[in-house]
Amino acid sequence: MAKLYFNYSTMNAGKSTVLLQAAHNYRERGMVPYLMTAQLDNRAGEGKVASRIGISEDADTYRGDENLLEKISNRLKQGPCACIFVDEAHFLSADQVWDLARAVDDLGVPVMCYGLRVDFQGQLFPGSATLLALADEMREIRTICHCGKKATMVVRLDADGNALREGAQVQIGGNESYVSLCRRHWREAMGESVKRG
Questions:
Q1: Is 88 marked active-site?
Q2: Which domains does the chain have, with CATH numbers?
């Protein structure tokens, strides 16, 4: 039975590595996966799912305003597809997450999403919030803070390595811009400037 999965974590936990391994497992068993990634994140090149450990694979891209049910339906018309893999799922809109849920329910294809849960200010991304509400199964991919505790938060750094407290929710970057921390060290880095209520 097809399901909608949300695999979430902080930055640098290996989400893309896990996605690429899962897609490889499908291929190894003679099945065809369909990979998608956000068009706006082109750090590894347009249409690439890439891991920090050096593996990558070509993928179709999605825009923030694109109908993903239609996109998946068109892909399924081209031939067999055993599973849809969506990288950078936090960039999805709420409507696009509903598109993915409809693809699972109406087209019978499993959809595995990989993305961040919260932004650098500790707020849910719209795509992540909707995935948390709609996913049939959720899995946390873990990484650690410098103190050894599980990292659940991320800070955005300026050019001098200082934690930023304000800014746009979306800013593409990697290790040079973001650090994953446990909640206690995130609170320290943010100077307790967390919004209340």
A1: yes
A2: 4-141 (3.40.50.300)
pLDDT digits (tens, 9 = 90+) for 145-170: 999 999 999 888 877 777 777 665 65
Per-position DSSP letters for 108-136, written without gaps between them: ---EEEEEESB-TTSPBPHHHHHHHHH-S
Asked whether residue 146 is marked as a ligand-binding residue, the answer is no
Q: Is 81 annotated as a binding residue?
A: no
Check the annotation: does 178 bind a ligand.
yes
Give me the catalytic one of 70, 88, 166, 176: 88
| Residues 22-69 pLDDT 10s | 999 999 999 999 999 988 666 656 778 767 777 778 888 998 899 999
23 assigned to a ligand binding site? no
Residues 6+ apart with CB under 8 A from 24: none
Give the per-residue pLDDT at 133. Answer: 97
From the list 47, 52, 56, 54, the residue with the least C-alpha distance to 20 is 56
